[in-house]
Amino acid sequence: MESTTTLAKFREILTPYLNANERKATKMMFYRNRLKSFSSWPFSSTDKCTPENMATAGFYSISKLRNDTSVKCFCCLKELDGWESMDDPWEEHKRHQKDCPYIKLNTVEQQWTLEEWIDLQQAMAVKLLEIRLKSDLENLESQLDMKQNQLQKERRKRRK
Ligand SMILES: [Zn+2]
């Protein structure tokens, strides 16, 4: 009962902050959706980085070109590319993002408790917002730089 309340509250707080793309990304929490994204993955069942192993390790494909192996973690949103057939997706994920909440949890979705599910979704939403805030901040900083340059130019003109 309490968990349901927490979930509802969580949705109420975060949903308005996520845009359509970000909400779409939250679908990748589910193994079957991640697996579907690997429809044109270049590795086969004799390789270590099969679509199944990639999806189990939390990754979904974000490649737009043939033979591009760019993937993203649904949870920490880390992007990795340049996969080779004998790369172990779970180990690679752990090596690059040891603090990923999904890697730390170390279980597949069938075994998650509701609480763990909420924690992961929360971590993911926070990460999405973090990325957006960072890019907003960068935009503001560059606008500020431009304004300062303009002001300096105007000041110099006035002095002449
Ligand atoms: Zn991750």
Automatic annotation (TrEMBL):
Q: Which InterPro entries match?
A: Baculoviral_IAP, BIR_rpt
Q: Which segments does the entry list as coiled coil?
A: 130-157
Checking SMART domains in the record gives: BIR
- Write the record's keywords in alphabetical order, separated by commas: Coiled coil, Metal-binding, Zinc
PROSITE patterns in UniProt: BIR_REPEAT_2
**Example GO molecular function:** metal ion binding
Query: Does Transferase count among this protein's keywords?
Result: no
**Top-level taxon in the UniProt lineage:** Eukaryota
Do you know which PANTHER family this protein is assigned to?
Answer: DETERIN
Protein name as it appears in the record: Baculoviral IAP repeat-containing protein 5.2-like
Species of origin: Diaphorina citri (Asian citrus psyllid)
